[in-house]
Amino acid sequence: KRGGVVEIRRNGLPLGTVSSNTMIAPQYIADSLTAVLPMVMHQNAQSVLLLGDDTGVAMRVCCGFPVHTIEAVRPDPVLTVLARKDGGTPCATAPHEDDRISLRRDSIPTTLRQKRDIKFDVVIAVTPQPGDHAAPVFLSSEFYTAVRSQLTDYGVFCQRISQHDLGPGTLIRM
Fold this sequence. Notes:
Elements: E1 5-10, E2 13-19, H1 29-41, E3 47-51, H2 57-62, E4 69-73, H3 77-87, E5 101-104, H4 108-113, E6 120-126, H5 141-150, E7 151-160, H6 168-173
Parallel strand pairs: 3-4, 3-6, 4-5, 6-7
Antiparallel strand pairs: 1-2
């Protein structure tokens, strides 16, 4: 913990950062922009699917927009508990009190394979660092095809790939 900002790591790899008081220590802009950009880019987002937002940062951002549905799929209950302990609640009201929010504990690939009647205006993926053992799943053509199947015709997808030195060759292959 440093100045009201908690960095959560597993096996030395950063998993996320959470500000315990955004008036003193604002949330890191890169974490917030992953949600702000697609919400602003869509002209009238009504439904949002959050994939892997275990720290709740993207949910906090989405709660500030006039959306009707926020479905959050969180595969890591330990990270969620740590982030909540140090970062407070993700919205003005707790998730269980906000009828717009649906929280699910499930793997992201399993969620994306499910057939649904609902499509989402915005899909936001907060995925593991490329060095993490689970990362290849989230950088595959199968993943992007599955995400596309969850979007409305004019839906917007945003994924933050958090790595400082990938090099141009790796970025081009992605």
